[in-house]
Amino acid sequence: MAEPYGCALLPPHGSPTGLDTFRCTIWAQSRYFSSSKDDGSEDEDEDEMEGSSDGEGDAMAESTREYSLEEKEAEAAAIGYKVLGALQRSERVFKPYEPVFAVVQIGSHQFKVSNGDCIFTERLKFCEVNDKLILNKVLLLGSATQTTVGRPTVPEAAVHAVVEEHALDAKVIIFKKKRRKNYRRTKGHRQELTKLRIIDIQGIEKTRTEG
Fold first, then answer.
1. How far apart are CA 171 and CA 39, in angstroms?
2. pTM for this predicted structure
3. 87 contacts 93 by C-beta, under 8 angstroms
């Protein structure tokens, strides 16, 4: 029997407890981003409410916690960025394309970026829309004439970015079932994302190209 598209089934055999579990994750065909948590949300099954109170309580406690300035800077530095402040209307930070690139690490993810690129990362705390950031975990710098590899990071290298939007990723449906146990759980999840616009790469010699 063929599997439905977008569905992965774990093999039922090999369970030591005899409670065979099927897990199915379905991804949407097209990525949909939304700035509102209400956009595109649908009512889930009643079974979803059971067992979800613990996770919601942890999320509420995390969101209501108050951080000191030192704690905010330390946690942001551990992820790989530093907040400089809001972008002023008079500032002209967006530059023409430059033939250099960098590989930066934000949290547990790595991105290859150039001037003017947009990237989506997991939701960054302690920053709002139009805030300027410095991405200081630069693993590699490259241009047409040279390449600098960090061990593990490149000293005195930085990538400047601006927060453009806090959005939500496409909904993912998680379905769990234990056969012969009348156990079915359906949950939906939308990952919170932050959209960054790269505005400058520093730490490498930039060669001008004749256009």
1. 11
2. 0.68
3. yes
Q: Which residues, at least 6 apart from 115, have a Cβ–Cβ distance to it below 8 Å?
A: 95, 96, 97, 98, 100, 198, 199, 200, 201
- pLDDT tens sequence across 31-45: 556 666 565 544 444
Q: How far apart are CA 53 and CA 69, in angstroms?
A: 31
Residues 99 and 203: beta-carbon distance below 8 Å: no
Distance of CA 76 to the CA centre of its chain: 14
Residue with tokens 């009643």: 46
Strands (E), the chain: 21-27, 81-86, 100-106, 109-114, 118-122, 131-135, 138-143, 147-149, 158-168, 172-178, 183-189, 192-202
Asked if the bond preceding 96 is cis, omega within 30° of 0, the reply is no
CB 24 within 8 A of CB 7: yes
Closest-CA residue to 43 (of 186, 177, 169, 175): 186
Q: Which residue has the higher pLDDT, 22 or 153?
A: 153
CA dihedral 114, 115, 117, 118 (to 10 degrees): 120
